Amino acid sequence: MCVILACMIISIISFLLVLSVLILIHEAGHFFAARRFGIWVEEFGLGLPPRAFGKKRGSTIYSLNWLPFGGFVRLHGESSEETISNPKVAFLNKSKKVRTLVIAAGVVMNLILGIVAFAVVYSFTGIPRDIGHVRILGSAEGSPAAAAGLKENDIVREVDGIKIVKNDEFIKLIDEQRGKETVLKIERDGKLAEVKVTPRVSPPEGEGALGVGITSSEIYYPPVWQRPFLGVYYGFGEAIFWGKAVLSGLGSMIRDLTGGHIPRDIAGPIGIFNITSEIASLGILPLINFAGILSVNLAVINILPFPALDGGRLVFVVFEAITRRRVTPRVEAAIHGVGMAVLLSLVLVISFFDIKRLAEFDRLPAFLMQFFK
């Protein structure tokens, strides 16, 4: 019982730590950008109101709030001209360029955090690099690769006479040959040989057409002083990869919703808590890597042109730049309020399905399982 309780406490602390860092970094972007351009930051809040605790330092209130789903920076004159007591430091009175930079600063900070997180992981676990060929890592029992005698460390030089040097080239050619006899030119112990194999049309779940593991890269460890720089370089590429993955996932979610299906690969706070708990059990580096992925997710989602998100706020600045007319602050605030209500409702719905999915795998406490039987 004590072990279970200790694991639960560690899981909660890990989740809150990761979530708090992501939110603080995001809101710190808005905070420091606003301060840089002379905008009065009235409140810097972690979580959403109602307020649980607040302390005023200088002209800013720093608060903890009861709803642990986000955070905010409240800028003077951000949503209403009627509340402006000092026009010189009001957000609404700043130029379109300044407002754009302040709004975008949170997204930029999350991208930077993601890159730094990936860089830290690469610095400790090594830097990936291309090896200039496709190497066999192993083959599944009963697979065409095993039947053909492909072994670990074999190098695949050609597929049906076509030279290959990368994984995607190998996968593409093999997929095109499903159900057909294919000739692979293999290098083993410095000697070349040809192997005939027939890729499966319908392989078992979790296996490819050949049932073989491959790689065209390796991990190397450059001098310690080089690792942070190379880590940032590869971390930037990793951030781009996950950014594209998020956009692809959002596209799939929209297709599912418009088709009347419930997306199964989307997770809310409860789902993220569960994933964080599992990853935290693997160690600090996997947790840092996961925090980087979440940070990139947060950046991409926040830049979407939806009310209450940073992207939604940028839409109003762009509209003003194009039409040379500003939407009434009260109307803009009302639109963002509706957007926030929609987002919170979506979080609740996703959380319900998170719980339901966990119940399917008997991963809920017994007192909750009874509601999902």
Characterise the protein shown here.
There is one protein chain. The two termini are 25 Å apart. By secondary structure, the chain is of the alpha+beta class. Strand 4 (155-159) and strand 5 form a beta hairpin. Helix 2 crosses helix 5, helix 2 (96-125) packs antiparallel against helix 8 (310-323) and helix 5 packs across helix 7 (284-302). It has helices at residues 2-36, 96-125, 144-147, 167-176, 227-258, 269-280, 284-302, 310-323, 329-360, 366-369, and strands at 41-57, 60-75, 127-139, 155-159, 162-163, 182-188, 191-197, 212-220. It has ten helices and eight strands. The relative contact order is 0.11.
List key phrases describing it:
6-stranded antiparallel β-sheet, Pdz3 Domain, elongated, about 20% strand, about 375 residues, disordered C terminus, two-stranded antiparallel ribbon, alpha+beta
